[in-house]
């Protein structure tokens, strides 16, 4: 009897444009050749070769993929999402690195920067020659970024920056940091060269999730910045939140890549594992688990594609992004955990990707807005009442 993939079960390929299919195949091939053979070792050692891989990501056009001009690929948002799915099918840490570079750091400059700032930074970032990070979260302010204590004060035409940021992907390898700070004129964003006097970064260790990713704490001690470091078109919390929406969009697709990889691994394992003299795949309980997971994976992929089309049409709303982020990360981690049960004891080893994905998805579920935050965004849209305070 022939078997089908989840994509075939839901006829996902029929919903993609030729360019999107080509991008999916190209990125999947890259991930198979350059990421999958090494990612278990990177995860175990808590390392990720950002400087080695960044030019390769840049050559593929993955950085700022759906931005236009300045050396960016200028694809559709849906195509970018599909690329995120294929990268995260290898590992969430790799997709996080791409999201931070393109959807956060580059997006901030693209949305809120001057033409001079765009010309100066974006081409090098698109090529992977200049690396960026995004400093919003602080030790005491995660879900409530508006309470941040990092502050920038004007001193003549300069700005002087003081404070700290935490959980910053790429923080110790970045050439520039997009840093958000309180000012006398609301929250503002700054492009901060990481070689500035008073800027320090420290890599965070002892992580149990996103181990194949560099995470750092940033500190600013009287970091003096020229006037042209300010991103002029961002005032208030809407600035960084606009960037977070871009990153959340990539997660909607990416989380489904991790879930797909888990399910494919579990199905393959069940077809080869003998239990009580027949294949594990031949048991009703196993097939029930696989069927339920396939349905949720397919629904999540269809939701991601629908939101991608809305984004390409310019009609995607923030609460719709929250729907996608809430549903797909929540279902992805459920799928990863259920797949682990099919693999039994083998599921806890790095020989298989399932528990690595599950551990990574613990972070993906939380960052760029916790599940609870997105529930409140959706609840406010449906009831008209804010429950944040």
TrEMBL record:
A Gene Ontology annotation in the biological process aspect, one of them, is:
fatty acid beta-oxidation using acyl-CoA dehydrogenase
Q: Which UniProt keywords apply?
A: FAD, Flavoprotein, Oxidoreductase, Transit peptide
The question of whether Phosphoprotein is a record keyword is answered with no
Known cofactor(s): FAD
Is Cytoplasm a UniProt keyword of this protein? no
Q: Which residues form the Acyl-CoA oxidase/dehydrogenase middle domain?
A: 133-223
Q: Which Pfam families match?
A: Acyl-CoA_dh_1, Acyl-CoA_dh_M, Acyl-CoA_dh_N
Q: Which GO terms describe its molecular function?
A: fatty-acyl-CoA binding; flavin adenine dinucleotide binding; glutaryl-CoA dehydrogenase activity
Ranges of residues in domain Acyl-CoA dehydrogenase/oxidase N-terminal: 18-129
| Coiled-coil positions | none
Organism superkingdom? Bacteria
Q: Which reaction does it catalyse?
A: a 2,3-saturated acyl-CoA + A = a 2,3-dehydroacyl-CoA + AH2
Give residue ranges for domain Acyl-CoA dehydrogenase/oxidase C-terminal: 235-382
Q: InterPro entries, from UniProt?
A: Acyl-CoA_Oxase/DH_mid-dom, Acyl-CoA_Oxase/DH_mid-dom_sf, AcylCo_DH-like_C, AcylCo_DH/oxidase_C, AcylCoA_DH/ox_N, AcylCoA_DH/ox_N_sf, AcylCoA_DH/oxidase_NM_dom_sf, Glutaryl-CoA_DH_mitochondrial
PANTHER family associated with the record: GLUTARYL-COA DEHYDROGENASE, MITOCHONDRIAL
Give the protein family.
Belongs to the acyl-CoA dehydrogenase family.
Q: Can you say what this protein is called?
A: Acyl-CoA dehydrogenase
């Amino acid at each position: 009897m022939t078997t089908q993939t989840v994509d075939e079960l839901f006829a996902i390929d029929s919903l993609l444009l030729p360019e999107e299919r080509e991008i999916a195949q190209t990125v999947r091939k890259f991930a198979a050749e350059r990421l999958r053979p090494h990612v278990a070792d990177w995860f175990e050692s808590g390392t990720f070769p950002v400087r080695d891989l960044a030019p390769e990501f840049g050559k593929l056009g993955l950085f700022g993929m759906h931005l236009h001009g300045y050396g960016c690929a200028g694809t559709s948002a849906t195509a970018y999402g599909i690329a995120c799915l294929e990268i995260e099918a290898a590992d969430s840490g790799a997709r996080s690195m791409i999201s931070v570079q393109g959807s956060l750091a580059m997006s901030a400059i693209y949305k809120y920067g001057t033409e001079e700032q765009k010309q100066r930074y974006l081409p090098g970032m698109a090529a992977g020659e200049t690396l960026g990070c995004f400093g919003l979260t602080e030790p005491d302010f995660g879900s409530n970024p508006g309470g941040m204590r990092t502050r920038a004060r004007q001193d003549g035409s300069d700005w002087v920056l003081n404070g700290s940021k935490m959980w910053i992907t790429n923080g110790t390898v970045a050439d520039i940091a997009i840093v958000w700070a309180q000012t006398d004129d609301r929250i503002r964003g700054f492009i901060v060269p990481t070689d500035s006097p008073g800027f320090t970064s420290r890599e965070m260790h002892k992580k149990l999730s996103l181990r194949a990713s560099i995470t750092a704490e940033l500190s600013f001690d009287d970091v003096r910045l020229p006037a042209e470091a300010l991103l002029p078109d961002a005032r208030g919390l809407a600035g960084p939140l606009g960037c977070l929406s871009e990153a959340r969009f990539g997660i909607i697709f990416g989380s489904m890549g991790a879930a797909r990889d888990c399910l494919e691994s579990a199905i393959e394992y069940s077809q080869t594992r003998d239990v009580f003299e027949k294949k594990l795949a031949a048991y009703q309980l196993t097939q029930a688990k696989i069927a339920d997971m396939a349905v949720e994976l397919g629904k999540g992929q269809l939701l991601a594609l629908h939101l991608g089309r809305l984004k390409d049409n310019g009609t995607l709303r923030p609460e719709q992004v929250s729907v996608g982020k809430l549903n797909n990360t929540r279902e992805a981690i459920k799928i990863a955990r259920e797949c682990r049960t099919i693999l039994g004891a083998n599921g806890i080893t790095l020989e298989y990707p399932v528990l690595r994905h599950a551990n990574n998805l613990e972070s993906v579920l939380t960052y760029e807005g916790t599940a609870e935050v997105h529930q409140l965004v959706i609840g406010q849209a449906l009831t008209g009442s804010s429950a944040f305070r």
